[in-house]
Amino acid sequence: MLDALDIHKKTIKLQVNERFPKTFSTTAGTNAYGEPALEIGQYNVGDHVDYAVSKCIRTTTIGPSFEADSSGASAQLQKLDLLGFVVGESRTWSGPHADGAPANDHPDYLNSYPYALKPIGNIQADDYDWSDDQNQYGVGVTNYHGFHELSGLYDAQSQELKSMRKSAIPVVKHDTMGTAAGGEMEAITNQGQSQHAHKDWPDNVRDQIHLLNENPYADSLYYHSMRMQFLITGITIPNSSEKASNHRGVVRMLILRPRMPSVRTRWSGTTNEPIINMDFPPHFDTDLFYSGKKTLGGRLDKSVRRADDTVGDETHLSPTFGLYNRAITEYGTGSAATPQTEMDTDPDSLHYGHLKPHEGKPHDLTAFDIFSAPINREKYAVVADKTFTLDTRHHGVASTRIENVTIPFNKKVKFAGRKPWKATSEVQSGVLSEETWDDPLNMKSRPIVIMLSLDQKISCQVTGYTAISEC
């Protein structure tokens, strides 16, 4: 039908990130646990490398070793490495809640996504002292948590993608009405928009609002799926006690989406106003995993298993937990020493009647506990959950595996048109600028890719794209 009417819909393949910040030095030595040294300091896009390397997040003693290390210790350690990717942009790391840490504009909303490295930043060690005013290394200071931004949802610099938007001003390079010597449009007028305006889209805020109210999908793109290929390589060199064994490592790959809470609306008969209520979004640090087998009397938090009666009645509880912390089980208004979670009791609050999220308490789980923990499906939807070993043809270093991943979208994604030229009281009836709103309005959550590796540090090379079509 479209071909008969000579209607052609563009489709592009938007590339995902294939280069990432360099997190570990390739020249410095290793520490006592065999971990490479962090690449400390500021970095920019020019410093990116073609791979991403996992970070050790948990070290567990599982018995004696047959050979002492450089320090004389003879414990056999089991390590859990993490490498992850956040589709789209992640939240900026604001540091622990300590004096001197960057402020959190919304303290009641904790991160539903892991903190990932930005394209430009400043990596510092995990023991960075946020409370010491003299221990500052510049702006953009962050720790490496094992996650990178994958992008692939939208690229404001892509002219082909911009030309597919119904609201966008036609791209200069695609225009045949240029008047300057180089074939470009005339300079932007003092009204903030090009003289060659868009013929099919309003030029002022009021008309744009009318159009989007009549047709919310007037400015939209169709997202098909994201297709990626991961080359996973084991880069840990086995020690003398492992050379005779088939040291391939085992990797668990997870693809998750946060489940954003539904919104309930009712109308008040006394004030004649709408009342909107919703739960708090999931918290990645405490809501990621849940297992009925992990109670507070066991490894989850063995400090509650005591002889007295202060916390003995909590040993049967099974709270949710994350990579480092567990959800707290005490309710009230506790102090920093005895943290508790409280309920939102403000009748005018959007979250009235729901428990406020909390940073939680550190848990005592082992590397195996975290590696094998079930996902908390009430808070995170599971797109994929698979466990595999690396290539059996190799042992230890250079063991490889290729994983092909498809993340389906299959939906029409709507946008909010163009931005007003003036952010003042004139905005209601003012003209529109050439800049478009680029945040999807109806994409409730974005995928998270997590790789958990036992006893093997992994390096990952990524290639892929997201297929996007014109509507």
Description:
There is one protein chain. It contains four helices and 20 strands. It has helices spanning 159-163, 205-214, 284-287, 367-372, and strands at residues 11-15, 41-43, 52-53, 55-64, 75-87, 121-123, 141-142, 147-151, 220-234, 250-258, 263-267, 274-278, 325-326, 361-362, 380-389, 400-414, 418-420, 432-436, 448-454, 458-470. Strands 4, 5, 8, 10, 15 and 19 form a six-stranded mixed sheet that branches. It is globular, with a radius of gyration of 26 Å. The model is unreliable at 96-103, 178-196 and 240-246 (pLDDT under 50).
Mean pLDDT: 79
What is the general shape? Answer: globular
Order of helices and strands: EEEEEEEEHHEEEEHEEHEEEEEE
End-to-end distance, in Å? 15 Å
Beta content? 25-35%
Helix amount: under 10%
The total of beta strands comes to 20
Instruction: List the uncertain runs.
Output: 96-103, 178-196, 240-246
The largest β sheet comes out as: 6 strands, mixed
Q: Give the radius of gyration.
A: 26 Å
Short description:
The chain is mainly β and 471 residues long.
